[in-house]
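Suppose you are handed a protein chain with no further information: no name, no annotation, nothing but its sequence. What can you learn? This example shows the usual starting point.
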Amino acid sequence: MDYGICSLSVVPLRLEPSDRSEMVSQILYGELFKVLEIRKKWSRIRLDFDGYEGWLDNKQIHKISEDDFLIESSKKNILSKDFIDFVSNKQKQLISICIGSRVNSCDLVEHAFEGKSTTGIFSKKHLLDTALHYLNAPYLWGGKSPLGIDCSGFTQMVYKLNGYELLRDASQQASQGEPLSFIEECEPGDLAFFDNSEGVITHVGIMMEDNYIIHAHGKVRIDRIDHSGIYNQESRTHTHKLRVIKKII
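A reasonable first move is to predict its three-dimensional structure. Written in structure tokens, the prediction is:
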């Protein structure tokens, strides 16, 4: 089996081996992965952090040895802290990276990082401070960066920056944590999940105080939430139907 690391700012992970295929997620700088299948132009990979799978353009793969992968995988994440920062290569050229990029392994790709970083596990109350940094970030299906992010990418990155692991998709995240019986039981930082008419969970957001929620819908925004779901004051309608609130930490 081959192994790799993302040596670019942020690259698309696609559903099928084609540039025209749906982007299901993104790989941020420094993320590690296993190569499951290799074709002429594309490879199917599995991300080390959350086990998410998809297709990656072979031109965007930087291969590493199994030993390096195992060593780096065992380390705690050290993540870039600023919204946009830079690493430099041997030629002193700058490569932009975004918040939440893994900068542990710069040596593997002969890069240098001198910016601000964060590591370790933070208290639950710190989640909302992190979430508010993404406010007004545009919605992007499959996105994980402040330049474009989807609902579950948003919750995953907020938790990741505070030292906690969430799965990638909203439906997967809904399998984690403990369900709460009433909205009054929730605390800031708990996750609220919403389903469609078929009962499939399609949306997630982070609970705030006083029945507010921060979530990615058009952009990362703050809305009211009640027992029915998310209420958009601008459109004066409920946009998402509440399924369950779960306590992850």
